[in-house]
Write a structure and sequence with these properties.
homodimer; inorganic pyrophosphatase (n-terminal core); 2 domains; 5-stranded mixed beta sheet; 36% helix; disordered N terminus
């Protein structure tokens, strides 16, 4: 459930409102700060001046990145569907009681990251933690999860920039710099009339950020598929990665829901 | 309790003999292999061709190094005194029974790494795991630990090369390549007559391996101090790191027992 710095997307707003949790403070500069990296472990994805911060803990579920430290620290990375699954399990491990509010927030994160358990990144541990957290919140997690994803996929009030940058990260593929984002909707047809506007915004972002390409996944949660929009170059690597022919700046892929597991690894392989 | 590839030092021999454990196979080439990195997470300290291996797990207690992976993996690093402490705790976490042999080997590793709990790297968790493992082995861990360290510090049968390379690792200090080793003895006086021979061997190793310097810690376990031997350059960084004047290629430091916590960090700071 990542959000661009300083913005709260419709899904996060739904979760915070539902569990009466205040909007957390956003940190954008790491200089001189003590930092725990959660849900990322790459310099390019961290706050500014991360090299002038003291990283004293890392909890994540992504590939191992380029963070190094001068001293031994606690670093726990586990290939589960959500970092919140790891954090929720750590509460038990260290015998810390979980408040209803924190249970709600962590359950939401797991349901969001695993797309209601449909993502190929989902593991039995994710399901176990949701069952545990749902009991604490008193919610029916299926009903709640659908309501949350519906709030997330309400794009009517979103600008094209909010759609592109809502869940967006920088990557470096063997020296080729790129931005890869994702928007999940319950029904892809709501995005069709806005595709031109989204592509134009992607091209603006690409130029402004000096990137080779920008790729945005338009993910249909119910149909379990993604329309992969691509602007920039090299198109041949994009086509190689997703084994298709680009048409109108897009390749449609059935079964592709996860950026981490189904989009980044094939891109890395194509650029090797 | 690291050993140079293919060699079994007197301490390891003592442990394996004591608990009737066969000498484990040594792997020197990672090409095409599936690898779990244990007790290290830096390319320079791993087997040859580690970049052509599949790293699918890391369990360590050192600073975070330069290992990266194409996919999410289990990576657990924790600032405790011994990686064996983490492994021993994982047995319980995953409800796997510990055999008497494995308990003996892990207890030995923790006692060795923490120098019988005297090292500043030692944590309450290390002590807890030793207490648990000692119960399984039926040993008095204090008595056993002293016997093990005595076997380790029997250097009479060791060549100078075995003393230098017995527990030896490569490091890169902001581009300056170095080898840093350690030998622990119960009484430093046994090493005094061999100091010249050790320094000559260090210089040979330095030249053969194309390093800027080689530093060997001669650690007196009972007096809790180390004589830091240094050959090569830059001497000024060595003196800056250990706040002393080098005499006869050495600086004597009271209270210094841990390479990881008390030797590598000040060197890194001096080279910054």
């Amino acid at each position: 459930m990542p959000a661009a710095a300083g913005t709260i997307n419709s899904e996060t707003k739904f979760v915070l409102d539902h569990f009466s949790v205040p909007v957390p403070e956003t940190i954008t500069d790491g200089k001189g700060k003590k930092i725990v990296l959660v849900d990322h472990n790459e310099v390019g994805q961290a706050v500014e001046n991360i090299k002038e911060a003291t990283i004293f803990e890392v909890i994540d579920h992504h590939k191992i990145g380029d963070i190094t430290t001068p001293n031994p620290i606690f670093f726990h990375n586990e290939p589960v569907g959500s970092t919140a699954t790891i954090v929720s399990a750590m509460y038990d491990q260290y015998k810390v009681p979980i408040s209803k509010e924190m249970a709600g927030v962590m359950m939401s994160a797991i349901l969001s990251d695993t797309v209601l358990f449909k993502s190929p990144t989902c593991t039995p541990k994710d399901k176990d933690e949701v069952a545990k957290l749902a009991k604490i919140t008193g919610e029916d997690f299926q009903q709640y999860g659908i309501a949350m994803l519906t709030a997330k996929s309400d794009i009517s009030s979103k600008t094209a920039m909010e759609i592109v940058k809502g869940d967006y990260k920088h990557f470096d593929f063997a020296g080729t710099k790129a931005g890869v984002g994702q928007i999940e909707v319950m029904d892809l047809s709501v995005l069709v009339p806005r595709k031109k506007e989204i592509l134009e915004t992607m091209e603006k972002v690409r130029k402004d950020e000096g990137l080779s390409f920008v790729l945005i996944m338009l993910t249909d949660v119910m149909k379990e598929a993604s329309d992969l929009l691509f602007v920039g170059s090299p198109v041949d690597k994009f086509e190689k990665a997703f084994e298709g022919k680009m048409e109108n700046n897009a390749i449609y892929k059935k079964g592709v829901l996860s950026r981490k597991k189904q989009v980044i690894p094939p891109l890395e392989a194509a650029f090797k």
